[in-house]
Specification:
CATH class of the largest domain: Alpha Beta
Low-confidence stretches: 198-202
Keywords: Coiled coil
Helix content: 55-70%
CATH architecture of the largest domain: 2-Layer Sandwich
Structural class: alpha+beta
Radius of gyration: 44 Å
CATH topology of the largest domain: Alpha-Beta Plaits
Strand content: 15-25%
Organism: Muiribacterium halophilum
Pfam family, one: Guanylate_cyc
Mean pLDDT: 83
CATH superfamily of the largest domain: Nucleotide cyclase, GGDEF domain
GO molecular function: adenylate cyclase activity
Coiled coil: 240-267
Number of helices: 6
Distance between the termini: 148 Å
Length: 285
Amino acid sequence: MKKKGSANLSIMMTDMQGYTALSSGSSRVEVIELIRRHNELMKPIIEFYGGHIIKTIGDAFLVVFDSATDAVVCGIVIQLLLNEYNSEQEEPDKRLLLRVVINTGDVMIEENDIYGTAVNITARMEGLECFPGGSIGISESTYLLINRNEIVVEDQGEKELKCIPYKIKVFKVPVEQQHITQIPIKLSKLVSKDLKGHTNKFDEIMEEINGKTGEFLNNSRRKTEDTLKKAKDDFSSIINEKKSMLRDELEKKKDEITDNIKKTSDDLKNKLNSKFTEFKDRFKR
């Protein structure tokens, strides 16, 4: 692909059906795994058929091809591979339903990105009900350029697309009716190699996450135990201090009471002695 200027290219856009709902109900690790699995399946096929990846956004790919036939065949092989992949998945959440749409036209190329009406038409085609997840849709401009002896299509008629001032005729490419019924052996080996590397890498990531989680839990447990021990020691120290203060207070009160009793006793004794003396003097008289 040229680095700058204009070119007539076949533009492929892909997106995963139900990705928004799936990602909102999944953990970050699960979403990362889903995207990685999707990317590892897609990239070898795109490169095998001469596609140039412009960018990826979450579950979506924007790709260009010099050949319209190569673009559509690439889309067919992507769906064949995903059908095979999905058949091996026991959990529904791990299955991938991909929508592939392709349009051909002039684009402006600037800093490894593409612009123009042809790009906008491709993006709007993704919203057509006739192209659900698991299907391939192409525009008339692509249909006119493909090898029709190699690719079977179904006419879907003219469709109105948002912000496009004229109707666009579109075609569906039914995967089950194609002459291509299996993935090329060479490509199959490439995908298997990438998936194996991806699986090993994911296992390493999960092992690292599990290790860090275990370390975090152990550290938290130790910190909690240390905090509880310190709180227990502090509480015991406070109790002992209060006991000591209470003991001192009781001793002080005891001394005061003893002094009061002695003083009262002395006063009473003095009064009695005084009365006795007074009575004794009266008796002498």
